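Run log, item B.
One chain of 875 residues. Sequence copied directly from the ordering sheet:
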Amino acid sequence: MSVAELLRQLRVSPSEGLSDAEVKARRSRFDTNTISTRRPTRVMSLLFHQFKSPVVYLLSFAAGLAFYFGEPDEGGAILAVLAINALIGFVTELKAARSIEALRLLGTRRARVRREGRVHILPAEELVPGDIVVLDAGDAVSADLRLIEASRLAADESTLTGESVAVDKQTGPVSADMRLGDRASMAFKGTAIARGTGTGAVVATGLATELGRVTRLVLEADPGSSPLELKLGRLTAQLVLATIAVAVAIGGAGLMGGKDPFVMVEAAIALAVAAIPEGLPIVATLALARGMWRMARQNALIERLSAVETLGATTVILTDKTGTLTENRMTVRRLCTASRDISLETEALKQGEPSQLANDRPAAGLLRIAVLCNEAHLNREDEGGCGDPMEVALLRAGLHLGLSRPVLLHGHGIVRKHAFDPALKMMATIHECGDGVLVAVKGAPEAVLAVATRATAEHGEIALDDNKRAEWLSRADQLGHSGLRVLACAMKMEKLADAAPYERLILVGLVGLDDPARADVPQAIRDCREAGIRVVMVTGDHVVTARSIGRAVGLPDKIANVVEGKDIAQVIETGQPALRDVVIFARVNPDEKLALVRAYQAAGEIVAMTGDGVNDAPALRQADIGVAMGLRGTDVAREAAAMILLDDAFPTIVRAIREGRIIFANIRRFVAYLLSCNLSEVMVVGLAVLSGLPLPLLPMQILYLNLVTDVFPAFALGMGEGEAGILKLPPRDPKEPILGRRQWITIILHGGALTAGTFGALAASSWLALDARGTVTVTFLTLAFAQLWHTFNMRDPHSPLIVNEITRNGWLWGALLLCAALLAVPPYVPSAALLLQLAPPTTDMWSVVLLFSLGPTIVTQAISAVARACHTRVR
């Protein structure tokens, strides 16, 4: 739509703006210019959520039975355990309940609005469609605007489109089907004006804006449960069902055999308490928190604990380009003069080394024009500045040759400026120079060459005929195909400052710029490849630029591996084979990023998505693990992500993946430990009931045993440092349960060994002629210490017997000492002995305990050594 037609439909004059009455009328028709967000999760609902678990229901029922049959100590102890679990879960999940409240910050801006012929500074929330907004460099755009005036106007839209370079704006209409990043006649809410001035008419506010549309995508994105949460939930449900089945079977068998109903109920309570690893949620939470602390020391801040483990299952990383794979710092890479092509060393620029080009007059002349025809400012040498990123890069390159813009301007003051004209694709500055003026021009190569009649040569100037012009265009194309953004610089001398700036120019040369790849990224991508993880670049930049960066960081360099945003839907429809072949997606919109994440997830992948802008937020929230940039990321991206990189470095993601794999291996280790210990308790109680023996373990003792031997040794197992080559293993199958067939077989065998040792101690108690309390004390201590020694069975079967990941774990030795004290002291403390119904052990009793508690571990290790030797001999 033309500007005139737009203003007619909006019923507004650009010089007068809306009247107060019209603003009031329109405010009643349109929503306020704010971004609505979800309500934050209520504290009470989060607290109640901690009790929505089959384990809680089962243990609550067991506590109720204990109270009903006059056992308040047992019932109270069970409820205390439930309260501890709920408290830990509540505290760790409280922060994870935040949503996209940061989007509101992008709406609480102030805008300069022309109303009734005067410019007012008003809260952005008060804007209505038809308002005339005045824009200047540095302003945040407060609504979606159709531009009606623009003078060298450019906007930083990186947070919305992913485009790393400021987008030049103009007022002419564009095609209705133009992609978001190519709508040059629009300024979007949430973006920022990089340079120039302009005026725009508000055409959309609030959720009707492009930013609002992204917000709706974020709200619609459902991250679901993490793989670890699903696996632990499935395991817990299986344990509850098995516990109920065993308790009912044993209780029924006892009642049919004429046993005392009260004894059977007590046995059922003991079985329920024994079968459920009460320490599992505590240990899982602490192990994940430990992983979070370790990650924070490596510049990765975890927002959700489960994200640590999820990273370990990652099979695909969808990463943006700017600032993650690149330095997010435009740099001059090539200078093309008539005599030669010059490659500038980036490191020399950074380190301030003396330039080898200081005596190269053509190169110095080229950069002199680039520095003069410039409106950016450097804060300090070799650091960022204010203005267009490419112009800042030109100033930085000028300093490399000793060309400081303030110094140059001291002798060549600016007489006039011709702002960048999007139609002409050029800009010019007029400078004092002796008796005349110097016209400095830079712009698109094809535009500058079209108006240039001569070119500088090694010895003076030469005519620029069609053949020479074609040679220069070919050189510019070569730079473009290597991923560089190309500018042409030209100049001329005139007598008067009002001479036409874009006629009879003298071409000085070409400048090639890029955003260089980070030096540490190629090795990180190789590490990912060794780990079986695919890295896919998803960027809003053009195909040529994306392919160049992909080549620099080690991504496969084939045309078939690159897909533009407009073709994404077709690739998604093709399915997994097509997705597996693509390594770069270019010119991608926010909704397409979200669709890509969903497509990879539908193909069975565990997806990690990196991003920094508003445009990345929906995909970050949808991904299995969203990774936001901490240095340059928007609040929206950080709130939507599960992990924030404090250094914006891609290698940090790789370290996080390694940590995630270690966490899963540790979780599998301590879950196997917990379940083998609990299985032994169930077998001890169950076999005693079925054999007509008195209960060798009482419910209160089992509860205490679980809190001591479950929590501390299991947590120590979760603190393992992991194996050195864990990243050289392929990702585990996302569908793989925490405990597979091999782990379950091991659990059953270990549980049987612990049970055998406990019944051996029970038989020895009869030989010592101990009373009922003495017998229970011996069986309790034997099983307890057998579980402590059982931690040494958790080593990798292929690791050495003495020096391995278990014996090197200092946390484990501390846990064993603490648990040994917590088990050995209570029988000698009258109040604790009365509560647990224990008797002070004698020397003979301790001898039995040590003998039969060490027996299972010794036998297990011996069998393991024999099996390993046989396996080695067969190989």
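Observations after the first pass:
- Residues 95-108, 346-354 have pLDDT under 50 and may be disordered.
- The first helix runs from residue 3 to 10.
Flagged for discussion on Thursday.
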